[in-house]
Amino acid sequence: MTTQPRLTIIMGLPGTGKTTLAKQLETEQAGIRLSADDWMTPLGINLWESEARQKIEDLQWLLAQRLLALGNHVIIEWGTWTRQERDVLREKARDLGATVKLHHLEVPLETLLARLSARGREKPPITRADLEEWSTLIERPTAAELALFD
Question: Is 0.90 surpassed by the pTM of this model?
């Protein structure tokens, strides 16, 4: 017997705590966590390789849809910077009978820089200029968008 499937989307810039929250939800809610970084690192793929990242996210989304169809809780922590990305995930998950929750994580720039420096995973390292630029590119959810989630 399957349970009500659930998709949890965790969005935010690098260093906002997406992985920390996703791991917590994975444990607390018996979910399956999908992160491109977790597949890229063991495969020796540089985290900056956007084409490889997109291919991995596409594969993870195929897996996520199957897991949702089987009644599982799936946690995606890709960043999902655009409204369009979030809409596609939400709509397809709903088509599969899933509830969909969005967590938007926002952290001060100085905190991001400290966290990213401490983890030291990105080569080359993420800079203040990168974060400042990305902060202007990320499409933060509006109240109207947030109302579309469970």
Answer: yes
